[in-house]
Amino acid sequence: WADRTPGRRVLRGVQQDISEIARVRDRLREAQSQYRFLFEHNPLPMCVYHRTTLAILAVNNALVRHYGYQRDEMLAANMMDIRPPEEAQAARDLLLSTTIPYPQGHVWTHARKDGTRMRMMAFGDEIKFDGHPARLVVLHDVTASEAAQNRFQVIARATTDAIWDWEIGTDSLWWSDSYYALFGDRDADTPGSIRAWETRVHPDDLQRVDASLEAAIASGASAWEATYRFRRKDGEYADVFDRGFLLRDSVGRAYRAIGGMLDVTQKHRDEADLRLLRRAVESTDNGILIADARQPGLPAVYVNRAFERMTGYSAEEIIGSTFRLMEDGVDQQPELEAIRQAIAAPREVQVRLRDTRKNGEPYWRDLHLAPVLDDAGILTHFVSVQSDVTEHQRVLAQLAYRATYDDLTGLPNRQLLHDRLQQAIRNAERLQTAVAVLFIDLDNFKLINDSLGHSAGDDALRILAERFGRAVGSNETLARFGGDEFVAVLTDQVDEAAVGRVLARIGGALAQPLQVGDAQHYMTASIGYCRFPEAGSDAETLLKHADIAMYQAKRQGRNQTVAYRADFDASVTERLQLISALRDALRRDEFRLVFQPLFDRDGAAVGMEALVRWQHPERGLLVPGQFIGICEDSGLIVPLGRWVLQEAARHHAKLTALGLGHLRIAVNVSAEQFGQTLQADVQHAMNLHRLPHGALELELTESVIMATPDSAIDTMRELDSLGVSLSVDDFGTGYSSLAYLKRLPIDRLKIDRSFVSDLGNGGDDDVICATIIQLAHSLGLQTVAEGVETEQQLDWLRARDCDELQGFHLAMPMSFEDTVHSLRNPAVTWPPVRLH
Ligand code: C2E
Ligand code: CA
Ligand code: CA
């Protein structure tokens, strides 16, 4: 304006200004369109809305795309229209408040046009837009990452693993709540870094674990795992299994690891227990089979080696096969049905079964089957445990056989004869027929025994038994009645003529020479016979009358056959005479006791058995076999037994005086004494001589106990309470069941002489004796072997732990003085036990 030509200068100035303004405006327009471009094409959704009306003033392409609207629709809407209805009110309040925490970002739930929800993080700023107060908002969709984050949180909370999250760069370690449940309270002690974690790893494991973690990080692996010991808050180490995943950046550097740590202490312990159990199951002698109860046919899933051994089948053959018992219709053992029912129930069952091994060999097994239920009570398996009891069963069968059959000849014994005879009488009564009873007694058989020895005598008896059997016929009964006595019971050949033919055949059998030892012998027999119904109506009477007839045959000079006649009963008077002689003998004090010592395994005397003798004025010293039977028949055994008890007691007092009071004296008791005044007699004898407990022992035979088992128990308990020990004499010859003996106050079993005589030759008696000793021990009973006659028997018995021993080899029955002398000056030396 200061120009000399002011108009021109003014004009030029205005022109200059105008072009300047235009330039500025162009630049501005250019900048505006650039900013608009940046807004429009920003990959993040952006919008501008009015601060008070919330009307949307501007949106960019990304927002339009993301929300699924048309641009005009968006520009016609307001900020409430992109909210789900349930959040609208809260959102409006927040948006209208003057300040909202936008710069940090705030996560909202927005809705697309199609209604789907998304989580949007908004960053905002206050601006002026076209002169209006407005907000510019940049939105970031965090739906997916938020879900992942949530999922992680939930998983971390839900799992029992201690979840950890390790920021490697900053070495910060985060633990989920499970950590505290597993390893300790929430406090400063929580390892917040790897360094802190390391202090809780067991020192012996630390180096290994660290190395493996470092190697995983360095190697580019995506996972790491280790098992180690980790200290709980209480100071105890837990076994943990730890597994982590490594997150790596674009150049492969691990920047973060996330994983879970599990306390496996209990699992390890269980596994160890299981290993132990498995070892036990595998190595036991019992056969074990496990079957799957959830599959049809109960296929076997496991068998141990003992089972393979027992059955002869290999595991491969058995596993997968259906339960054998179910299939096996081979025989009709009722036990199979019991098993079927137990499986159906299901419940436990225990049975003894006959079965066959793979090689066809039959065997016995005790089978115990039990269902296995899972924690929910559902049946999953059956376990069966079996032991091979073949040997045991065989011994039982033999014992039963022995009880009814004679060992030497294999013929029925007296017991079985009695049964058969009774049966025959019953049949004959019913059929109106007869029975003939023949009593055969060999003449002078004692001579063979005495001159040739017992085994020659045994041979002769065997041969004759066989010949008599043929003579009598296989449909009839021939029994061995006693030493050299046989009895035939005829039911088919009963008339006079038929009996005559049988007798003739027996005569023929005797007429043939007997080859025994080096020489031939000729035997004769005295035979008596009688018939049902004429000679009696019960077995007892018939046998007695046949016996009487036989006795007549002897009296008439032997080698005869005599039929019973009623007037023979006169011979009964002979018996009566013997009885009165015995009665006198008691009065005249003609009885004596001899004593036979018993020793323990080491040769120390433990007691002696009192054996009665009759010092007959004319016939000399008689042994019990010659008079005890008549005493028992006549009842004389009661006063005689009383005398024996008192004498035994008196001698024990003598033992005590000699400093041998620790030895017990055993007294034999007959059935007839039992249950009478026995307890009173025992008590009286004990009081009279002030015997201590354990000084007396009573030897009872099985038949005594088994005849009246119930009252026997009572009597035995009373005796036991008096301090008398009890042993079972002649064990193995009677019927006693071990299960029954278990209930009695018995101290020991005396194994019968007949078992002992053959010991050590590997025969059946070896097995029987060994089994008796074992069974007795398992019942808490001691065993005594009687009739030890040889060094071999002694060795065998000592090696098998038989507790006590008695027999001619060790000491004969002797007078009291001789017995005491022999105990002080032992004749037998006891070598160390030779083990089997
Ligand atoms: P027992 O109870 O079996 O008595 C053992 C018998 O075996 C005794 O015969 C004894 O001499 C004999 N003995 C001992 N060691 C051996 C040996 O190594 N080999 C052989 N072959 N025999 C041996 P004894 O004294 O003739 O007695 C026979 C049976 O008479 C006794 O058998 C017993 O049942 C009965 N008895 C003996 N004394 C009495 C008694 O006072 N009262 C009762 N009721 N019965 C008695
Ligand atoms: Ca005895
Ligand atoms: Ca005996």
Question: In summary, what is this structure?
Answer:
With 836 residues, this protein is α+β, with helices and mostly antiparallel strands.
Give structural notes.
With 836 residues, the chain is α+β, with helices and mostly antiparallel strands. The strands form six sheets. It has an eight-stranded mixed β-barrel with strand order 23-24-26-27-28-29-30-31, surrounded by four helices. A five-stranded antiparallel sheet has the order 2-1-5-4-3. A five-stranded antiparallel sheet has the order 7-6-10-9-8, with helices on both faces. The chain has 30 helices and 31 strands. The longest helix is centred in the N-terminal third of the chain and has 35 residues, at 6-40. Strand 1 (46-50) and strand 2 (56-59) form a beta hairpin. Helix 17 runs antiparallel to helix 18 (496-511). The site of ligand C2E has 24 residues, from strand 24, helix 22, strand 26 and strand 28.
Layout of strands and helices, then pairs:
Elements: H1 6-40, E1 46-50, E2 56-59, H2 61-67, H3 71-76, H4 85-96, E3 106-111, E4 117-129, E5 132-141, H5 143-158, E6 162-167, E7 172-175, H6 177-183, H7 194-198, H8 203-219, E8 223-231, E9 237-248, E10 254-263, H9 265-283, E11 287-292, E12 300-303, H10 305-311, H11 315-318, H12 324-327, H13 334-344, E13 349-356, E14 362-373, E15 379-388, H14 390-404, H15 414-431, E16 435-442, H16 445-452, H17 454-472, E17 477-482, E18 485-490, H18 496-511, E19 514-516, E20 519-521, E21 525-532, H19 539-555, E22 561-563, H20 572-587, E23 591-600, E24 605-616, E25 620-622, H21 628-634, H22 637-657, E26 664-669, H23 678-688, E27 696-701, H24 702-707, H25 709-721, E28 725-731, H26 738-741, E29 748-751, H27 753-756, H28 764-778, E30 782-785, H29 791-799, E31 804-805, H30 816-824
Bound molecules: ligand C2E and calcium ion (2 copies).
